[in-house]
Amino acid sequence: MQLNNEAYRLYQPLLFSLGYRMLGSVVDTEDIVQETFLRAYQIKDQKIENKKAYLCKMMTNRCLDFLKSAKKRREVYIGPWNPEPLFFFSDMHDHPSEALLQKEGLSIAYLRMMEQLSPHERAVLLLREVFDFSYREISTIVEKTEDNCRKLYSRSKQKISIVENESLHYERNKDVVNRFLKAFHIQNTSELLELVSDKVTLYSDGGGKVKAAVRPIRTRTKVLAFLIGIRKKTAEDYYYEIRNVNGQPSLINYMNGTIHSTVSFYILHRTIKEIYITMNPDKLKLQSAGVLFTR
Fold first, then answer.
1. Domains observed in the chain
2. Which Pfam families does the UniProt entry name for this protein (predicted)?
């Protein structure tokens, strides 16, 4: 396959966006993207007419293999598993990956929901819904019939219950987060009752590396009590910022001069339905080291 630097610049954002949505890991996705291009550069005699579809096929197959091997690791993962947060910064608004990364299917809530799908369901859903491939193209990429791909897509849509379009309004959600933080700080009970669902669930991901809740915490009373307990134990130099994480307003918490955790939310109809706290240092080390990807 004839590839040059221009082809890499053109297709790398697409492959990263596809891989990250399938795996929920920045580090693993970047590794697989590099492997895919390395393999593509080595294909010299084969004439490829549709480079985009062929590269997506290579990337998808590697992601499927990775998910199969990762299944056992996920089963023994200590506590809830949250996707690795993806940080966005406004000084990269012209980055070629922005359009792909800002499309649906990027939020922590959506990526967590993807865990309910089989690897092939996940691939077909993304290729069809996020990347607009036809069923004919998808059948070639995942090596299944078009009819089978349609069934996989229908099945995956039934499992994904998040109303994504209703939960992605950044500024509206940022207002909810700000109101929640203010109400939590001054213990405004009536405001908290309005902003937080009675059936809210909190997922705390420490990965066995740091202290975290090993089971999801459910109901408003228990979640707020848990958060109050965390606040009482914060270091004196603790501070936070509200930044764009996975396309949504989230808290980035700092302690000892480095990133301690991120807190993301699933907000629907101006109500917090789920909270995701990621503390596993392996999922924060790129950001803590200043290697901040995307926008």
1. 5-161 (1.20.140.160), 165-288 (3.10.450.50)
2. Sigma70_r2 (PF04542), Sigma70_r4_2 (PF08281)
